[in-house]
Amino acid sequence: MGMKSNKLSNPYEAYSKRIxxxxxxxxxxxKIEIFLSLAKLILVIxxxxxxxxxxxxxxxxxxxxxxxxxxxxxxxxxxxxxKRKYQTALKKINEDELKALDERFLNTDCGxxxxxxxxxxxxxxxxxxxxSIFHYVNRTTTSAGKKTLSNWLKEAPKxxxxxxxxxxxxxxxxxxxxxxxxxxxxxxxxxxxxSLKKQRSFQDLLKEPFSFLHKRALIIFIHVFPLFTLGxxxxxxxxxxxxxxxxxxxxxxxxxxxxxxxxxxxxxxxxTRLFRKKITRIYRLVSKYFRILNAYAQIIATLExxxxxxSRMNKIKQELIHDNKPxxxxxxxxxxxxxxxxxxxNGLLYALLNxxxxxxxxxxxxxxxxxxYVGKQIPQWFEAVGQFEALSSFANxxxxxxxxxxxxxxxxxxxLEAVSAGHPLIPEKERxxxxxxxxxxxxxxxxxxxxxxxxxxxxxxVGVNIILALAGSPVCASxxxxxxxxLCTSMKLSDxxxxxxxxxxxxxxxxxxxxxxIREGEEKGKxxxxxxxxxLKGTNAMDRQKGSLALxxxxxxxxxxxxxxxxxxxxxxxxxxxxxxxxxxxxxGTIEGDKLVFDYKLKSGxxxxxxxxxxxxxxxxxx
Length: 623
Fold this sequence. Notes:
Layout: E1 3-4, H1 11-53, H2 62-101, H3 133-137, H4 143-154, H5 161-176, H6 179-190, H7 196-207, H8 216-242, H9 247-274, H10 276-286, H11 289-305, H12 311-319, E2 321-322, E3 325-326, H13 327-341, H14 347-357, H15 359-374, H16 377-400, E4 405-406, E5 408-409, E6 416-421, E7 434-438, E8 444-448, H17 455-471, E9 479-482, E10 486-490, H18 503-524, E11 528-533, H19 541-555, E12 561-566, H20 574-577, E13 582-586, E14 589-592, E15 595-598, E16 603-604, H21 612-618
Parallel strand pairs: 5-9, 8-12, 8-13, 10-11, 11-12
Antiparallel strand pairs: 1-4, 2-3, 6-7, 6-9, 13-16, 14-15
Helix pairs in contact: 1-2, 2-6, 4-16, 4-17, 5-16, 6-11, 8-9, 11-13, 12-16, 13-15, 14-15
């Protein structure tokens, strides 16, 4: 039986209160910003006036006082600008959650780039894309979070699934009550433009061999030679100032020293050019990534300070420690190093520092030195953040749907039991709840009924809740028990002109995928739960009936279970042949006046009604 969550605060009240709190703080911050802007303006005007009045006798103390006061005002102003941005983002998050409670989809990443028509169930069950399960659940802000959440929705844990899912459920329950933590991290992540492509480029760079770290002579050279260059420049300045010779001789001497300095800089430039390609490649791979790393460092630092009770969250927290030091320190240091690379965008200053100090080589060397020390840990830290964000997304789903239950995952017997289950993407006021039960010996539920009665929706309801259950999320049901099946579907099929596939052949390939998965499951002990909607609809009625019966007889010999929605009443005879393995269910509708009325309730037995002619008349076809 599914587990109910602990009592949580009312989400409408919590979000509304937070919006009002943010508005109040933004009002105060705005007044402080206006005051600081005026203060800076008054300081500038005051200093200019002082200089104008005392042209030849400006008080010496005025300049350092002005610098200190103006810098203090500027730093304080920057602090409140960050607070304003934080409160603005927090206010938007809570406004979005109120929209979510009104069952509207948010303007968030819907995972359309993750669609995969070859996957066992992604396309059929609307897991990714606009108004999908991912779109509904997703509250991740980092590429690591998106990757983890999408992977969890694609497949269940492979080793000890019940234990792994149980740990996720425990963490989700804990995080559902930590609204401050969840939204704090969501705000910090919202300021970055992370992507899976950027993260892959960065992690590929971490795996590459070192280009500079083991070149000891080069490392010594880039540290020592700039000292010689700087020493010569200081010597040049002091020597020039100390010379007391005729102007022509002074110019001649300055020209000689400048020529020597130019030769030194040209030599340093030639050394830099030897490694330009390697350094430029590193820069292109990590360009602007320092801001992303800075956000990760802030997120990780927040998690490091938090106390948790669930085992999964404590494991995540433990992973954020290396050599008894917090991961946020290493990530912050790495962000600083990559930020130094951005000097390349400042043309003149970059040219001076790079030719005098070997700036690029120092950045590359320090990057590789840190990579050697924590390069293998960095992907693990990203993954830890990704796990938190995925768990936080499920916790948010639970907080917004407190009547949902946590499913029970059983590995001891092949069963599935859904009580008052509904489709999470259907608005609650329109959602019809149904029940179904598969015991150990049950193999197949044949679902019949007229068009538009709810057969396909019910198949999707069961499928989507299995996905959520095996991902560690609460499910849209009052109770849900399932074995960790491999889920396979054949539902939304069409012909493919680019692949030169007819509808019938496309469906055959899909059914072959299900058949192979079932056979593989028998060999590896991983039973399948399959969902098939209108089998073999791309051929004539006689072939469809023969082919469907033959395939279902074959599948009934295996341990796997499934549901078949069909208009073909001949398939309901399977129950008579296999009374223990097969059960018939149906949806029906009634005609009230000129309207077709459906109750969308699942009933036991086989449907005997049809509505094709009525629907044709309803849309205006004269028969």
